[in-house]
Amino acid sequence: MTRNNPPRSSGRQGRPGRTSGAKPGQVAHPRWSSRPARPEATDREGNTARSLPPVPGEQRPEKPVKAAPAKNAPAKAARAKNATKAAPKDKAPEQAGPKQAAPRGEGAKKPARQGRKPGAVRPTKALRPAQPVMRQPSGDPLVGERYEVEVGPVAHGGHCVARHEGRVLFVRHALPGERVVALVTEGTTTSRFLRADAVEVLDPSKDRIEAPCPFSGPGKCGGCDWQHVTPGGQRKLKAAVLTEQLAKLAGLTPEEARWDGSVEPVGGKLPAGEVPAWRTRVQYAVDEEGGVGLRKHRSHDVQPIDRCLIAAPGVTELGIESRDWTGVASVEAIASSGSSDRQVILRPRTGEQLPLVELDRETSIARIDDQDLFHRVHGRTFVRERAAGRTWRVSEGGFWQIHPEAPETLVDAVLTGLDPQWGESALDLYCGVGLFAGALAERVGEEGAVLGIESGKQAVADARHNLAALEHVRIECDKVETLLPRTGITSTDLIVLDPPRAGAGRDTVAHLSSLEARRIAYVACDPAALARDLAFFREGGYRPVSLRAFDLFPMTQHFECVAILEPVR
Ligand SMILES: C[S@@+](CC[C@H](N)C(=O)[O-])C[C@H]1O[C@@H](n2cnc3c(N)ncnc32)[C@H](O)[C@@H]1O
């Protein structure tokens, strides 16, 4: 059992965090050394590696420690300014109030709302969450209309396409070839398309099954898209989406993309009706009564649940669903698959104090404030994961693949595709806590060089910690599109890029295409962004020589791809 005992002191204390992961010039591989990397790259706020915030879990000095001697006074002054700016982030967590997240049904009384503390600083306007601008849709509303339709092909986004009297409908909970009654959930007479749910299936597909999850279905939880589909049927849908996106956005057939047309199952094939419990990170929403659930599709409404079937056993055993979370807006549960580490990250409702949390297992607890800053409440500020022969520290807010087998699967696909050689130089872009950088570094050896770029400061601190023993790895903190042109690197042997859902974009792809890499591995979680960027790579003289797709998000529309590109000769 874990209780988030209020922190005793007002801040983390001790020695300073690690400074730069590599000495200037240390990774200057011959092919990069024509214009060496800047000795002190800065992140987008002007911090250098030396002025980055200390690493949680390591100790920090009570007083600011003097930065290492600066080469020039202005840089030193800028660092000092940044250190001052960063100070509020390291503020001590407030004392937790006397409230308790008791098991639901124990009748915990709601304490009175707490007002703003005297002297507390109100966030500036820019820091307050933006209010969505609600546009009044034109035309007459069609929500609630029911149309009998023939369901057409699956589309990117977890729905199928149907038509009714010339109007396009995106229908969820349907399957291609089915005849269904579609209930319109969004749209008007002037909308380009309508959104709808299949509420009655008149002619079912052979891939349809009874959804194993009682919270899945029209108007219910938005977490899974394909609960009503056999595992094989889900992978066929994903393959159809990838085929369509490649054709539409890259002008490529599966053959031209060097893809065998399959989405590979991960973690063994399951019989229809069995749900893989793969989700090692679950973001729960909390309703007005303090009950947890998951968000409904395209809605802030909460679908109360008593269990999420795709949650990993390590998440389920925390017993999150059986507690009263009054005063809390959201609960994120993380169960490491590489260690016994468990972490729960709570976001209190505005103006509410954090309740005292009791869970069914030993768990680290953190709090996120109104400005999205993390505060340690109890235990560690990170979880430890295992992959590619290494232990990885992943701090709060840092990226780690959710499926327990994803890191190994993707590292294997990347290394197989790139076939790194001893002494080669490599870039790991959008490197997170350093997963691919670490795997590449082992292969290229100390004669080689690996540069990782990542914009998240804490992820960078984790990556530097995780790869501290590898002298030929350097991690820099900034946006790829900002830093890469400033590194002075004009060529490299290998590139891995694993961008967020939006992809890398035209300018970054153009820059990467100019680096004369022998091979590029593109790890993609969005098939549309991948296809668009493959078209940009073609403009830059690169073509896919292999493409693989992995079902790393079973029961949902999502999947992961690894494309290996080579220069067109
Ligand atoms: C899909 S994750 C990949 C992380 C890592 N490769 C892994 O597998 O664990 C994308 C990462 O890119 C970072 N990121 C997002 N936008 C970025 C940008 N413009 N420049 C650099 N990093 C960025 C995110 O913080 C995140 O860590």
Automatic annotation (TrEMBL):
UniProt domain TRAM: residue ranges: 140-200
GO BP term, example: methylation
Record keywords: Methyltransferase, S-adenosyl-L-methionine, Transferase
Pfam families found in the cross-reference section: TRAM (PF01938), tRNA_U5-meth_tr (PF05958)
Positions of the catalytic residues: C525 (nucleophile)
Keyword Methyltransferase among record annotations: yes
Heme among keywords: no
Region of interest (Disordered), residue spans: 1-141
Binding residues annotated for S-adenosyl-L-methionine, in chain numbering: Q401, Y430, E454, D498
Protein family according to the UniProt entry: Belongs to the class I-like SAM-binding methyltransferase superfamily. RNA M5U methyltransferase family.
PANTHER family (alphabetical): RNA M5U METHYLTRANSFERASE (PTHR11061), TRNA (URACIL(54)-C(5))-METHYLTRANSFERASE (PTHR11061:SF30)
Record's protein name: Class I SAM-dependent RNA methyltransferase
